[in-house]
Structure formats: structure tokens, C-alpha cells
Amino acid sequence: MTQNTNTADSASTVTFSTAPAAPLRVAVIIGSNREGRFGPIVADWLLARIRERADFEVDVIDLAESHLPTALSFNPSPDTLAELGKVTPKLAAADAFVVLTPEYNHSYPASLKSLIDWHNAEWQAKPLAFVSYGGLSGGLRAVEHLRPVFAELHTMTIRDTVSFHNAGGLFADDGTHKDPTAANAAAKSMLDQLHWWAWALRSAKEARPYGG
For residues 131 and 162, is the Cβ–Cβ distance under 8 A? Predict the structure, then answer.
């Protein structure tokens, strides 16, 4: 007796469309709110790279324009709700994030930690990339401190980063990068990876809600 082993699998098969999809929405978070900060110069460079691409739509969350308290609450005051209203909808709508961070005392700014801690579901099952700047370390110690924080929130961090070492000397007075070839290439690689993960995770969540 010959047994037919070519039986159909009873489990359902999930397929993903490879047709062109709507642009992915990326939220760029400018993490510093310090007086005299260098962040806007790096942010302008980064945003120009993203806006060159048709596969991303961008929202900007500038923490110098948000004043979230460090004291968390399950019953926020009207003032806090107003501040959350500036940032929460953008985080919720995002398919992906880019966090732009300096390095303060070998770590990242308190303003950035406050934004992170006021939110939870908005971060989940989405990819996040880092752009950092600073002195000799280029802000990379801040990035490495942020990775386990976002892991706790079920956020997929991209391995490749863009970092600016001794950042003040890399940009001209008008904000343009003096020698952008390497930085532009690094940004393209990082954004390509971010787009892949954002597309994959968005597609997966359309087939099956995360955690379900």
C-alpha cells in the first residue's frame, strides 16, 4: 500500500502583497531641548535626506516645543493633556521612528526619557533608527543606553546608526555638511533598513495584530 504524503497543510497560510504600498510614515524625534543645542542643524540635514525619498512621509516631534512633566500620572492634568496632544497622535500614526539624540554625561537627555515613558502602545512593534551626535564618541553611548529601553517597549531598533563625531566641526556656518558623502551613504543604508522593517511590520500587523 502506497501512502500519499503530499497532503495539504491544514494551517492557514499568510501571504503579503508585494504591490506598491502607501508611503510609510516616519516620526523624527529631536531629543534635545537644551538652550543653544546643536540638534536642529543635524535635524535639518537628516530631514533633507528623508524628504528626498518618495517612500516616506515625515512628522517632526521637537522636544523643545513639548513640555511633558517628568512626574508620570494616570490622571494627567489639562496642561499635561495639552502637551501630550502635541506628540501622542504623531507617535501613534507612525510606522517607524528616527530618534536624534546628543550625549549628555554618557547618556541621553531627560526630555527624551520623559517622552518615552509617557507612552507605551505607540512604540510597540515598530522599527526605530538612531542618529546621534557629540564629541569623540559621536553620541553612541547615548544610543546604547536607549536600545534596552526601547526593547522593553517591544520596539525593533535598527542596528546601523548615523553618528557625528565632533559634530560642531563637520557643519558649515550655514548648516550644510562640509563633506557629506560618507554621512549621506550611511543615512541611505540606515533608512533603507528602516523602510524594510517598517514595511514588514506594518504588513504583519495587517495580517495579525501584534500580541494577538
Answer: yes
